[in-house]
Amino acid sequence: MTAETSQTLDRGLRVLTLLADTDHGLTVTELSNKLGVNRTVVYRLLATLEQHALVRRDLGGRARVGLGVLRLGRQVHPLVREAALPALRSLAEDVGATAHLTLVDGTEALAVAVVEPSWTDYHVAYRTGFRHPLDRGAAGRAILMGRGSECEEGPGFALTHGELEAGASGAAAPVLGVGGIEGSVGVVMLADSVPDQVGVRVVHAAHEVADALR
Questions:
Q1: By CB count within 10 A, which of 105, 113, 138, 177 is most buried?
Q2: SS3 of the chain
Q3: How far apart are CA 65 and CA 26, in angstroms?
Q4: What tens digit of pLDDT does each residue of 46-90 get?
Q5: Which CATH superfamily groups domain 73-213?
Q6: pLDDT tens across 135-182, in order?
Q7: Within its chain, how far is the Cα of 97 from the centroid?
Q8: Other residues' Cβ atoms within 10 Å of the Cβ of residue 178
Q9: Is the CB of residue 143 less than 8 Å from the CB of residue 158?
Q10: How many CB atoms lie within 10 A of CB 161?
């Protein structure tokens, strides 16, 4: 902590971070131990966060992230989209296919930015707001790949064909190393398969997006 920072705000943000990292919530005692402060301080932090709907407590007294964070989260997508657009435009023009940035939204993959190439006679229509299961389509599979060690062992990108749209193939690579964001960059094209060199170009675009978001 420095003279310019607020200890109380810092603790409150640490509470939110701890709760976001668990699926089953934390008790006051658990938070007290993790933060290194007494239970009274934790009670005050939770009460303040509850007033803003950022934290909720269940009947068992375990604290969890509240629905208020969704209001904040909705404002993240436009910022992420703006940062990613230059890399997506370059990708779409280089490959001649529709490029997209996809983020995790619960148990689904959500397309938050889409750029279509300007010079092709035809391309796949892929719309912002399109959702699909994480285990279907290149975008979702790349995100799941980014959660494990497959990216280090394999080529760093996922390839699929016909999983979301008949006749369409996709390539996507995970966006890695950006705190609080889990997503992928990819392309979708009308083809029987995606050339490996396109997969490599997608990986490069994912790195560019990650750099823009850091």
A1: 138
A2: CCCCCCHHHHHHHHHHHHHHCCCCCECHHHHHHHHCCCHHHHHHHHHHHHHCCCEEECCCCCEEECCHHHHHHHCHHHHHHHHHHHHHHHHHHHHCCEEEEEEEECCEEEEEEEECCCCCCCCCCCCCCCEEECCCCHHHHHHHHHHCCHHHHCCCCEEEECCCCCCEEEEEEEECCCCCCCEEEEEEEECCCCCHHHHHHHHHHHHHHHHHHC
A3: 10
A4: 999 999 999 999 989 999 999 888 777 777 788 899 999 999 999
A5: GAF domain (3.30.450.40)
A6: 999 999 999 999 885 555 568 999 999 999 999 999 999 999 987 789
A7: 22
A8: 16
A9: no
A10: 16
- Contact between 16 and 34 under an 8 Å Cβ cutoff? The reply is no
Residue type, 11: R
Token couple for 198: 């396109």
User: Which residue has tokens 């979708």?
Assistant: 188
Which CATH code of 3.40.190.120, 1.10.10.10, 3.20.20.450, 3.40.50.1000 fits the domain covering 7-65?
Answer: 1.10.10.10
